[in-house]
Amino acid sequence: MKKVLLLLLLTCCICEGATAQITYTDAFPNLAAFSGPVEFQTADDGTNRIFIVQQSGLIYVFPNTAAATAADRKVFLDLSDSVAFTAGQERGLLGLAFHPNFAQNKTFFVYYTDLTTGNSTRMNLARYQADPANPDAALLTSKVNVLSFVKNQSNSNHNGGKIAFGPDGYLYASIGDGGGGNDPQKNAQDTSRFFGKILRIDVDLKSGNEVTGDYAIPADNPFAGTSATRKEIYAWGVRNTWRFSFDPVTGRLWAGDVGQNAVEEIDLVQKGRNYGWRETEGNDLNTAVGATAADTVGKNIVLPVFTYQHSDGNASITGGYVYRGGLLPELSGKYIYADYVSGRVWALTYNGSAAAGNELLFKTTGGVQVSSFGVDEQSNLYFCGYNSGRIYKLTSGTAAPTGMAVAGIGGWSALKSGITGSVRAAAVAPDSSLYVAGSITAAGGIAVSNIARWTPATGWSGLGAGINGTVNALAAAPNGDVFAAGSFTSAGGVAVSNIAKWSGTSWQPVSTGVDGYVSALAMASNGDVFAAGSFTSAGGVAVSNIAKWDGAAWSTLDSGMNNEVRSLAVAPNGDLYAGGNFSAAGGTAASCIAKWNGTDWESLGSGTSGFVEAIAVIGEDVYAGGSFGFTGTTETKRIARWNTASQQWFTLAGGVDNTVSSLAVKEGELYVGGAFTVADVAGANARVRSLAKWNLSEGWSALGLDTAVGAGGTVNALAVAQNGTLYTGGNFSSAGDLITTDIAAWNLPDTVSTQTVNGNGTVSFAGTGLTIDFSDVIDSGSVTVQRFAQPATVQDGVAETDRSAYRFVITQSGLSSFSALLRFNRTGIPNSGVSDAAAAQVYRRETPGNGSFAMLPNVFDSAAPDEIRATTNAFSEFIFGISPTLSVKSPAGNATEYKLFQNYPNPFNPETTISFTMKRAEKTTLQVYDLLGRAVQNVQIDAVQGGNTYRFNASRLASGIYFYRLSAPNFKSKTMKMTILK
To answer: Whole-model pTM?
Structure first.
């Protein structure tokens, strides 16, 4: 992934509990919002002014006071006619630096991109002067081009962007590797090129330095005096150092370098050192390009000071500053930085040789993206909100909680013990099998290699020897074949290149594959497979980041995209939608999203202002999710709807506050997964936790029971099964209140009923087929019954042939204790699968969605022949098991204990049912006593292993209190009380 100003990149996180009492506030509340601010600067000339750079080409100036108004804000420099800027891309006016002697010479420098006559991206470093007669305005006529160079590739991203003067008086500039996945031109390690470097030049032409045009080469630059390298290079091997800064106390050069697919890094940049890209990413070898330890030998590589992983929505580092202000002494000497995508801001402690601590200060609310930090003349620290257009100041205090709690819908279920690793992709095959893939090592405790299969009947299994690298995408064909793609070279021991096919029994190559990583797959109704990512060849055919496989050969889709593609979706009419980080498709201007109509590429209006990570189609609406903030000039906050009839973009209420990574459609409704915390529910930020449902008429809904909703982590993949089950995969440790790892299943109940219980009595739950007789009720409360028309995902404890297609989740609040007779009427449950209620058992497990089921005491009553009955004193999840009709009933599984249950009904006349469980089959004696301890009945029962019931008839006994107990060779039960009431 990439980072760069606008809406970008990847994913990740580090610690999650803020330990410092630090927050932020709108620094200039009376100013109108800026449009895409990317730089905050001061001139350090004693005038205490603030300069804000807009990516589109404007620089504003205004006094540094919270009371500043619109009248105080002036246009300092307007380069909007000169810069090449596309909303959502990484081009534009990117950097501003004032000369250390600006107070006297009025000189400053800008860094921007424009286009050559051949439409190639050109980087420019230019010098300007402020108007001596009007310090709030620059002189356009004073421009001097100091340095310009043209990209050696068509990608629009990774342009760097920071310029700053160091303590040595020289001007430093960060230049990205030029874009594309994994530095396709190998620029960062090539010292004959500017790309992937930190440059240092002398703009004052100091004596002794070699003059080159309008600047000179510092004599101690690593390659000064050479001819085969770029003499301007200070350090190299960086991917896209978007922001760097100098510590004014130590002089250290701190830099945040944006990672590819896994890691963000913080570097202390030193002269003449190599920071490893593309051979390394963070501290690790970049196996995506086949890098080995031998590739790093002799290259003088320096490892980062600190790294963090792409998780919890973190994806793109925004380098900051070492805090040297007086307002927040607890931050003194700490390096403050952020993640652009997640909005998290941290403080890194450095002890002079290594990182010694990293604490989360806060996470911005409302999805504010931190594009840049800056300091004023008093060394107070600020940051720019790219999508909000506001400028914020770090202050003391505690950030408000993120979002309000809301009640969710539906229920969660685990898939055995879940996944070990990270799920990046999921797909359901025509036979209802679920396939999940990513970077995974185990599924349900079974060792796998990056891909696994799940069925409710058989559980988890591997696919042969698996895959030897990360899988980013899956697609199931109509014939049952499953395609997997990502960054790998072997599938099942077969040599492949980033894409392979599973036939059901073995792995097969897809021709010669593609020469770069694949991020997305889409399956057409005729079986054609579309693959997209960052590659230039498919099966030996020259392509540009996207290609089609028709079962026999690869082909192009016109000239493809000019940068990486991350998402694909096929509409019912066969149109293909593609999203990513591109600015052109087939030569047509298209900002991050485009449509392939089978012949040509078409734009979707003005597109989005940043990465499109997921696409879904419902009717005439196309939904796009990602890390963008706008569609055109409309703020859409990471998700938007394109209507093909009106050719317009629409918001989804107030959107969500962090990246959208996955979309799925279920029964005409949109399900959205990602790294967000809140969604706009009825105009308020509601806590939905990484997963939510969108309906055009109802808006957003959280998923889960009560306020235990969403996922405890990041949702990367969604897939819908034929029975309506929504499978959710990613990096998380819980789903709702269910403890599960990286995979879970969610279902919407077909019926829900909530009733009040005020004491003993009978309560019917309309529409569910369930009536409950309550006794021994203490306190009053409410009881909710959810009936699901899908079977439990795991039904351990119930024989496979006995499982029913329904499950019930019953919850209560307010009842201190109770006894309940559950009466499921088979005729009130459509297609219940129960033809004989007397032969059915009810099973319960302690945690809804997880664990094994145990059979409850059966209390079938011939007077109610359609009712499946059981007693319980605790609610949870319940299912049916269909067993042979027995006078004494037994579950399919083994009981774990001897246990005698309370009879039901109680009081009774003249019959009641006494239930018990046995560890093994053996003769058992039921003994009944009166109040004087006299035995009134002894019954010999041939008990079976598991659950047993005995119908006790008291027609010959008088009214009163009686006691009963069980005895067998291996146990004696406790004594229970029952009452005969005639």
So the answer is: 0.79
